[in-house]
């Protein structure tokens, strides 16, 4: 069975050496020194290793069971959820006004990674709650906040997001769930929602559903949509729970993975709902949280890959098979461990260099969100808006691919469920789909984010890359990083130029290359991250850091990424520059 | 639930227009005219669509059950197996001397694709039997052949291959199963074998296990290994069944996919076995069938992708979501079908151009095996030996990737087991692992096949590519094909050169690039196939073929492959040329 150890040292390297958080001036970051953050991360790591990771396989094997309208979570989940509440983990980066601990989003992200790596399906219960919390926090009335937030911060009540219906996922303009205004100011909500993660379960007293529905008078398509709070149990004036609301579970889905999370069909039969935010502006309210939600899914991509990687490493050191072609490494044994073989190394380096690069990008993204929220930094907001589809789309594609590679290290044993590697692959698969399928992320990136605010944010990104390269001019040690980054960044610029020149005449010329652009930009982003990490590692070594091996490993891992992953950029550019013709050549009937 | 229709027209295009089988002079190919082959393929397609495909999801959901040492296959499997036997499908390309129909291996391959697409797990029962049949046919005594082959041709008895043990998969030199010679010339086989596909089930009267074991006196490692026939029930002189042999099922594995096939732990407790082929030359005997076995797995890679693709196409035409950015295509409806969106097209074209290219490569490989067996053509044997690791490794990697893409077209619905897309992904995953994990295929390709016979076969391959390009010089219609193919082939040559120049000093310099080389060569092979297919399509159009749209679609699909997939070759070359240093930089403890 897989095990998991939180990569606290790698996280600290990012926080202290690369982001240098305490020096940034972001309000709240002044507390994030090495000793405080270590205490938090170590403790989270302990909970993850001892409580959550052992339940991961249990959740997968048992799944959730629906009986008489009640969903039973897998054995041990309820106790683990209690432990999470008691440890205060659910309140970490929530508003102190409602019982939160007020830590920056960046710390929530670091701790979140640890919990997701240990048990992705379990962590979704609080992850969804956090999303609903954020929506109410941003758009709720004072009354609504006072009523719901304290209980959601503590996870005594959990939350859900209700968007999808059977006939509409991406295209929410098609949704049919109705909201009829009542005399008392509430609404009657009627309709069916599907794919509702954590939609029903036995771990909380109440569940607060946030539901997109159409109220009269809003017009066609997405314009008519409003967002509603629909509690499972009505909340009385005094805060105690009242009647059961008219929302029920139709069924729970049999899925490829994340079995420990209940994915529900929810039927709203005239359920009582309360408008959240402005009438007919529900899409806007829902998407205020989009960057965070998508960053959270991008995190799942590499967090699951991290857990899979750790186990692949252990297996490759343990399993004896074949001999090192350059001479036996374990002559006393019957064979050498797998890790001596160059192709196993290639696989482990692919995994390691991706995971660490993606963690850097995600942490950077989280710090930009903090800058936006805590310093009202519009440039940071624009930049993270640009990065979000890349963090979500690229990292979940690659995270899945790396989980598959980790499984492959096990050979035939990786295919046996008992080993747990299959679960990583099956769990990681959903992150490419939900919170906007990755094709939709690519569309968002190329169709919207590149041109947003007159292209300001992508220009700022290119300037940032340029400045990074310039800063290391003349430093021969950094040349392998800056040269590869420069070349990749130029390829990304060329792709952007191609879209500009051709997309006006024919939008398909840009959209046919959107997926490749998302990946091209993903590699440039990770190239930028590795350049920064290499610089920070060299600086630490120059300053006489005690753990030389750690920093040297960082540099070698970065060099691998630059040498072995950035060449993909040229291939993506070539695909992009082939334009729409090869993609759109066939009539639909020809497929 | 997924459906499947055999792509008979695409197959006929390969047989009649591209391979032009009846003109080749290969004995037996003279019968493979369009009318005969259509009759066979149509009939196979009917069985596949009506009998096998509907059982695919059943097999996945029910799996196999072990009770009191007996394995129960999923509902309907037994009746379907009877139908396969009665239809003569198990005997198609077997030797007429033992009841086979004597058709070329190429026809067995085409029919095999159809059955695998419809139900991969089910088809393994007869696939494994065919492998065991081939081994006995090649190495058995006349007595052994007479005893076992007729029943195996008819699949009244099925077969298995027993290689893996708990502590050894790839490294068979480590195996511990013992064979003790008996006075009567038989052997007592003792040991444990794992991952034995179709190792026990309820669809045949007897199961003929082929088992690798060590008999005394053979020396260390693989040299001491011999191959044995171990029947589940002993066969009496008159051919009737006698006592149960001392082989039993320890357990059946819970796997990620191919649930319909029983993957068994088999315990041999002094079971009676009979030497097959020469003593201590078991590895050689086993690997006589290696090209066929690996080609069969490479076929699974694209065959499952074909089935997944067909369903992705249907879904993309049916599901209404969003609008074509260039103008509504379904203005009367609430939205346009998914297939209008460029990124969905990109995905479908990736899938389609891969599957059709891989089919061409596999059929070509099968025709080379026929040339070897029916014309004793050593060059064909050498060439297919070179192509085999590519067909197995590249096609199963890509086949899995394409099944994932097909699943992605379904959005959230693709993650729900009920839709069947998850099964394609889970089933396809095993093909990257068994019959030599893909990393081992890459090792075989770069470490063995490139240099085999003084590099003769790879040189012949390059010459073949060169000749193909030369043949179309001056044909502007073919330029998009030959130019891309030439460039990719040069990149492959450069990679080979890099291995030669660096691999001598340091074998790791070659092995660190082996996986990329396998993929680079895969693209060159499919580029060659698409060049041939485009030429054949142009020829058919020039000759006034009735179905213009079909041939034009072929050309457009090929152009997509050349424009959008061959650029990957440059990236693979860059990875290869970065050498062993980035890959091997870290000490094992640094992971």
Report on this model:
Chains A, B: It is an enzyme of class 1 (oxidoreductase). 2 copies of one chain form a homodimer. The first copy, chain A, has 591 residues and is of the alpha+beta class. Chain A folds into 3 domains: 8-287, Butyryl-CoA Dehydrogenase, subunit A, domain 2 (Beta Barrel); 289-436, Butyryl-CoA Dehydrogenase, subunit A, domain 3 (Up-down Bundle), CATH 1.20.140; 450-584. Helices cover 56% and strands 12% of the residues of chain A. Chain A contains 19 helices and 11 strands. Chain A has helices at residues 8-18, 34-62, 77-86, 105-118, 120-139, 142-153, 282-288, 290-318, 342-375, 378-409, 421-431, 438-449, 452-471, 479-503, 507-511, 514-542, 548-564, 568-577, 581-584, and strands spanning 65-67, 70-72, 157-162, 178-181, 187-197, 206-214, 225-231, 233-235, 241-244, 247-252, 263-275. In chain A, strands 3, 4, 5, 6, 7, 10 and 11 form a 7-stranded mixed β-sheet that branches. A two-stranded antiparallel ribbon of chain A has the order 1-2. A two-stranded antiparallel ribbon of chain A has the order 8-9. The first copy, chain A, is globular and about 80 Å long. The model of chain A has no long low-confidence stretch (mean pLDDT 97). The interface between A and B is large, with 95 and 95 residues.
